[in-house]
Write a structure and sequence with these properties.
Blueprint: H1 2-13, H2 17-56, H3 61-78, H4 93-109, H5 119-125, H6 128-144, H7 150-158, H8 164-169
Organism: Anabaena sphaerica FACHB-251
Protein name: DUF29 family protein
Pfam families: DUF29
């Protein structure tokens, strides 16, 4: 990115505005790609912990914290600087869920039941429609609640997951 900024500066100084605008477009694309990569990373964390929850039918403090963290980070990163628009709109999550599902299952297989199950076994055991519903409901919250309200709303939602009631009472 440093080279692009140098090129941008030189283009402006030399009056090559068409070149400068092309560099601005390139920088904007690089920035959006980096943000989407971040969002996908947090989405994968969310999926991993919801997979573990579904397969093991329990919820730990650590998993709850990871789910909450992932959702809060998605909310923060997804909102553009103008605070009015999003990088991923509410109706655009399906492709990202599809992209991250297999890697999330693979990573979750290392942890679920202390790594006793293979990726394929976990994939067969998963209720994927329920998993996608849970993820979708959590993602929807990022559009409907402020960052101050969201932690409490997430915690309330977590009590509805398998083992969530025991988690909230502990």
């Amino acid at each position: 990115m440093t080279q692009e900024l140098i090129d941008l500066r030189n283009s402006i100084v030399e009056g090559r505005y068409t070149d400068a605008l092309a560099i601005v477009d390139e920088l904007e694309g690089m920035s959006k790609k980096a943000i989407l990569r971040q969002i996908k990373s947090f989405l994968k964390i969310l999926l991993i912990h919801l997979i573990k929850n579904q397969i093991e039918q329990r919820l730990t403090n650590s998993w709850a914290a990871s789910i909450r963290y992932a959702i809060l980070e998605i909310q923060d990163v997804n909102l553009k600087d103008n605070k009015k628009f999003y990088y991923v709109n509410q109706d655009e999550w399906q492709i990202y869920l599809e992209d991250e599902m297999t890697p999330a299952i693979a990573d979750a297989s290392l942890e679920v039941l202390n790594g006793k199950l293979k990726r394929k076994e976990i994939s067969q055991m998963l209720n994927k429609p329920q998993l996608i519903l849970n993820v979708s409901e959590l993602l929807t919250m990022t559009y409907n609640y402020t960052n101050r309200e969201l932690p409490d709303v997430i915690d309330d939602y977590l009590t509805q997951l398998p083992g969530g009631e025991d988690w909230s009472n502990s």
